[in-house]
Write the structure tokens for this entry.
Amino acid sequence: MNNYSIRLFYFCSILCLFLTGCSGGLKVNETEIIVTMDGQPLEGVSVNLIPKDNNSVTAFGMTDSQGKCQTQTLLGQANGGTVIGEYVVTLSKTETKKTGKLLEGTNGSKIEETVSVELLPTIYTNAQTTPLTIVVKSGKNSFPFELNSQKR
């Protein structure tokens, strides 16, 4: 990047922050997602709310031991909420597993290879295939999702 590009980038970044701050930030609403599978709460599920239109912003959260999470936007406070609108919901829970295969490290040492394994049915992990949708309205919102472990 040349100096002009860097200055332009910083100017645009500061302008976006200024405009967001002056307008009072995003108008968000408390949004709780509850995820269970086969009747049991799921902890550590990454929840992503993908807007169906351009008037909303993406929101996300991570479920606790009760299978619950409070969502937030990238510009919002932790557990701050979600902008009014329609969303597609994707869910993902991964686990790192060792493969048993040894790889050569940078200093000649051996390290064991690991892979990330998706634990939820893949139908829920992709915005194109998930059957999960929500409509966030003004005020407090709560959306329970009972997943079927047999769906793939």
